[in-house]
Write the structure tokens for this entry.
Amino acid sequence: MSYRARRTITAYFMILPAFILTAIFVMYPIVDSFLISFYKWDMLSVSKPFVGITNYIYIFQDPLFLQALSNTVLYVVSFVPCVIALGLITALLLNQKIRFLTFFRSAMFIPYLTSLAATGIIWQWIFNDQFGLLNYFLGLFGVSAQNWLNDPQWTLFNMVVMGVWQNLGYVTVIFLAGLQGISREYYEAAAVDGAAWWHKFRMITFPLLSPTTYFVLILTTIDAFKVFLQVYVLYGESPGPNNSGMTLLYYMFDKGFNDYHMGYATASAYVLFMIIFIFTLAQMTLSRRVHYEG
Amino acid sequence: MKRWTLSITAAIVMSSALSGAALANTRHAAAPVTITFYEAMPGHLGSTLATLTNEFEKSHPNITVQLIYTGSYSTQQQKLVAALAANQPPTIAQVEETWTTEFNQNGRLIPMQSVLPAGTIKDIFPSLRADNSYGGKLVTAPFNRSAYVLFYNTDDFKAAGISQPPRTWAELQADASKLHRDGHYGFGMQANYYTFEMFLHQAGGTDLTANDKRAAFDSPAGRKALNFMYDLAVKDKSALVISENAYLSDGFNTNEYAMDIDTTAAMSFIDNPATHWRVAPLPVGTKMAVPTGGTNIALFKGATPAQQQAAGAYVNFLISDPATVAWAKQTGYLPVRMSALHSHAWMAYIGANPIKAVAPAELQYAFFSPRLAALNSGMTSVTTEIGDCLSGSLSVAQTLSKSAQEINQALASQ
Amino acid sequence: MRNLFIYIPLAIIALFVLGPFIWMLSTSVKPSGEVLSVIPHLIPSRWEFDNYAKAFASSPFLLYFWNSFFISFVETAVDLTIGAMAAYAFARIDFIGKRALFLVLLATIMVPGEVLLIPNYITITNLGWVNSYQGLIVPWLVSVFTIFLMRQYFLSLPQELFDAAEMDGCGPLRTLFRIVLPVSKPIWITAALIKFVGAWNSFLWVLVVANSPSLYTLPVGLINFSSNEGTVYNQLMAAATFTVIPLVILFAVGQRYFVEGIARAGIK
């Protein structure tokens, strides 16, 4: 037996437990629901006629799906840059020698730990037009009250704010870790040259941090595409005024559990999957090029 | 001494248990049977249900009822659908009407008619019985049902010099304007399908045509209903439109508005000591029409004959006079049968608690939403249009014709 | 002076992050009539610590704490063990089909988890695991995220470490458990915390699979404060507070490693 064949057997043996479990509880359901996307099935009846790509045609003709698609993409392109920028700034601030460092770091994480059942309600109150904290604060500065939760034009804003709030700590810590991985020597050399802060950031920090940025970008993008629970809790199990908070995953959930249309639900899930896949692939290719050029 | 009594008691219990077991062998009906019940009754409601269930088990020692708490109605539905998809339904479960239609069409239910005594069925409040029947057969049994009433803040009424709650739309509109002052509204409402539906029925209209094929609300009655909402919210600005995600009772509790129309089940959440309130029958439009809330109990195929009998006995107990009255006293829900509503116990109770008397008296005017799951997506769209209408971006006529189109589309897609 | 430019933005960010949490704490000690008020106020007129006692008594929370802890602990321990083995193979062994297998695993992250609910419930039913710890735990024993995270870290370890192990005649398993894992403390603590939090807060699966209170976990205790008609806000906030405390402690202890852990994984 060749060396490589022996290594292959060893490797497969090590992967096997993880693979078996993933195959049963992740891959099988994924394939199973992919097949369901070609059937008309209400989950209750034994009859399950094959309908080809009808479900896909239906959802692409459904204005609600198209709205969900555009809402989701808008959310991703607004949320991802916001959370990455704010996370990076926070990490840069926390990377200084300051007091209460442990406090600040731990504080950043609290939203990630706390149950959405409670924080969802708190955010409803913050955005409440009558007694909400946000309107109260704006009122102190003479800004007129907004109807945050009932006015569709604010929905994206609300979702992004709540999303950033939840994920900021997570993103910050990854950046912080990346920053601490950059050797001090680079900065010391720059200090000798008398480089300005911005110059140091542009020439040293940012390029050396790019693998971390890439990691964060891929993970937050995948997560952002799957936005659902935020809307669900913030708008009390509804997709927001005028469906302004309807997202792809919300659409899938709605079609499956409210309309008993597993075919539409799974078809929309696979459209979502394909979009994420293409986005991730594009990001990988793009960042590889950036990486080589840098 | 004490131990002595204990062991005597033990001996008695033992021997009676033994003779019970002996009896069970000869009498088939006493064989032990367990039934499962998916319920979504949180907190105090859940413990009240558990108490009633214990009482039932005491009187039926061979039956065990396993209460399976599933959270909210939406998680209940998800768990139920998963269980049905896996062919492992519970014996019984709380269900909303649209689910019943879906389950019933797929042949997943055993009609309650076949396990409940005819006397009980006949005694169920007629409008509730109709809402639970399909093709003249009682499919589900009403359980935690509530009706909508007008909540009003007595302090606000006194301050505005109004002596009694409004009885008609015109009075409601006039009072709302009188009660409206800076930052405090006369009336609170949600701009959704259900609010419109209520006014529609009060204006003498219906959701759908008689055969349930098309929307029927793009009509004079529909215009009247939507105009009324428009007048309150936009023209008079005396009503506060609250979002779908908020509970109407919360704004009433904090006195953001002086009146709202809400279910009796919301009563227990109005706990602000500074808010003094009462309830009144819904104001009359062209006629009186009252929406209801809550769920019914369904029995699922897959239950053994013994379980079916046990489920029948249990449901029959839950809606028996003493149980349905006890349930109504402890919660904001209503007794679901006529004999209970006329029982001495209930009469005595509402004598002492007049706010609980309003809703049962309204039950004869109850109307029910179409029991079609297909309508869900249409209702969501209509809610959107009504929101647009009340924010001034769609006219009443446009809203109605667009909404009717959406409902027709939703009905046609099935 | 320079520090002002650090502390002021940090304070603003901390206010944003902690603000909602502080409101949650404040609500948890308010009397019920005061929970919603038109002018927001943080300090209750009367501190109602009784809310905590009432909330705690409303469900068998001690049992739920135990279930949450047990389920999260088992899932985390197994996930780390088999995840580390798979990650090691993907990072350090050159074998046939490696790239393809890894891509398949990665792609599963992109499929929304909600898709898995019904098929997995049917599988659990066929296995006879409804209403059992197996049913609650087994589907979540492996997370691809853990494998991905650990793989990234193992990739960044110096080759000398592995060469030395091979010279000593260590097989891959021995190398992993005796040499690699001890020097990878940061990453497995990181992965463990993330997995643990996920399991602690998981909700829908527990509600769908469990049929008796003896298997319910903390999030089920939390929904018990809300109904279709209203919510007991102060008790809900009290319960949310006492259910998050163990996690906060875990994080405060683990955060030092947590930072170190992701640092390496992000590099490759």
